[in-house]
Structures are given as C-alpha cells and as structure tokens.
Amino acid sequence: MKLAFCLYKYFPYGGLQRDFLQIAKECQKRGHEIIIYTMTWQGDKPDGMKIVIVPRKGFTNHGRNTNYSKWMQQHLINHPVDRIIGFNKMPNLDIYYAADTCFAKKVFTEKSYLYRITNRCRHYLAFEKSVFTNQHTKFLVLTQTQIDDFTHYYHTPKQQFFMLPPGIAKNRQYNENSLLRRQQFRQKNGIEDHILVITQIGSDFKRKGVDRSLTAIANLPESLKHKVLYLVVGQDNPNKYLQLAKKLGIENRVRFYSGRDDIPDFLFSSDLLIHPARQEAAGIVLIEALAAGVPVIVTSVSGYAFHVQQANAGQLIKAPYEQNELNLALLEALANQRKRLQWHQNAINYGQTQDLYHLAEKAADIILESKND
C-alpha cells in the first residue's frame, strides 16, 4: 500500500517525531510505500521514503497549518494513497496518532472567554473537532485519560480508540554496561562521583517546567545544593532559563544541552529525572528513565506518570500544582539515599518485566488493517 504520513514539522529529538519515524519505518519494513508530507525537515532523511515538502505559507502557526492541510489534500487528489496517517490534528485522516492532550478540555477548563474567540483558538478547536467527529478515523492513543477527554468533549465512539504500549528503544534499558557508561560519561563531562545528577529531558522548556525545576533546586539547603548538578537536554532557547538560574544563584549548578543522540548515557549517569510538566499527553522520557533505572519526580498531569506510580520508582506531584510540593519532593529524594536506591531497583525491574518497547509494531498492525475492520 501507499501510506501518507502527515506531520507539520520534523526534527530528530521530539518524542512525537521519534514515534512518527519508528512507525513509518515499521510500516516500510513490512513492504509498504511511505510518503511523508511536512513543512520542514531537520536531520537525516530515512532511506527509501519520499518526503514532500509542503509550502510554508502564512504569518501564524494556525494559518500555516490551514494552508498545509489544503495543499496536502489537493496534492493527494492527484497522487492518491491507501491510508492517510496524521501526527497532528487535521481534517480527513484515516488514522490519527494522538500524542497531544485534548485541546477542548484546556480551552473550556483553563482559558478565558476572550481566548476562546481568538482565531488561533477557533482554528485548533475546529481541526480537533474535524478529527474526533469523523466516524471513519481510527485513533491511536497513549493513555486512558486521552480516551476519557476526547469522548467527553466529542462523544466519539470508544471502539474507534486503540491504546498503544510505550515504544522506547532497547538501548535505554539498564544492562551490564550501564555502570561503566555512567563512569565514562561523568569523567568525560567532569562530573565527580559524589555529585548528585538531576536530569531533565524534553523540548519546549516552559511546557516541561524547567523554571519549576530551577526553583526547586534553588530552595535546597546549601549543604545539599552544592552536591547537585542539573542537566537539561532539549531543543529550545535556554537563555531565559540561564538568566533565571543566575537570578536564583545556581548558575554554576546548571548545564544546558541541545537535542542529541546519547540520551542513554545521560540517563545512566543520572541519580534522578525531574519532569514537572505543565502539560504532557504522555512523556516518553518517563518510560526511558524507568527502563534505565532512574527514579522520577513528575507532575501527575503527565500521561505516563502512572507508570512511575506502578513501578514504585519515584514520586508524583499532584494537581493542582504547588511549587512547595516539588521543593519538598526533591529534597526528600536527594537526602534519602536508601529510598533512591530502592526506586532504582524498582525501576530496573519494571523495565525488565513490562512491555515498554512495542509501540511501533502495534501501531503498524492497526494502520495496515482493512478499513472495514
């Protein structure tokens, strides 16, 4: 079959983008032709896949998204395919991979009336509605919360939803070489053995709560603060957060890295992963951390936070968010080595006993099923 994979923009270090490419490669491996529609592509291009660069027209994101959808639909009339698989919300999809939260829930529970009448809001609501009121679309989701929210706001039949397992690479899993890689990474980066490394991984620093993490670190007792090093890895501009770190007096305890390929080494070298996200449909890095044996502190709004709870390998910061709760959780985790070691062992066990690795295979099964199934 010919399969059209639709994504507004691709860069190699986003969770959605990694899932997109995993699923496309799995479908290709099964003998199907992959055509990718995107406005921008960063990084290496996959062998054997056709990449169609859609003209990037418009002065706003929602304007560009509208033009992308119109252009792509017109192009598909002249270049028909057997399936249209969307990784962003847009009309006329056969399959939608839901890596995002319900926009309608955010609008009607968090936003003002004035926001609701903006062109931006109207666009995103209309595109979301076009997806979840389509009776022929199959929805690939990551959490039960997504199903609950979308069915609540759009009355979508539950039989259109298909829950996927996480899908991390096996090289994230703790193994006999993990301690050696920890030592090598720390030596290479000048990190002494006694230093407690707190890592945060993810693009879009505001949404991931990097400012919350910096504030929690700044509130640690001086005796503990000087033993801490905070590593932030992601595609975003760090200047605002470096300024905040300086204002909080912890700039020498913080390092920022752009997106990169050696994430397993960051994880194996870490004593704790922190992820106080404001919004997170899933959060694949939480699964990666657990598989690597890294305890996690995470806000409960993150879709995959329940895995941390099931593994008994960290602590959830419940909604509504209170900064002091994060401050205390971080202090207790860093001060209690016995608890951290227990969380570490629990995380390793969870990574070895749970299915955290087959998202792409399951997604491909559903994509390639008959449309009448």
Automatic annotation (TrEMBL):
Entry-linked InterPro entries: Glyco_trans_1, Glyco_trans_4-like_N
Keywords: Glycosyltransferase, Transferase
GO MF terms held by the record: glycosyltransferase activity
GO biological process, one term: carbohydrate derivative metabolic process
Domain Glycosyltransferase subfamily 4-like N-terminal residues, every copy: 13-169
Domain Glycosyl transferase family: from-to ranges: 182-348
Enzyme Commission code(s) on record: 2.4.1.-
Keyword Glycosyltransferase: yes
Entry keyword Glycosyltransferase: yes
The protein, known as: Glycosyltransferase
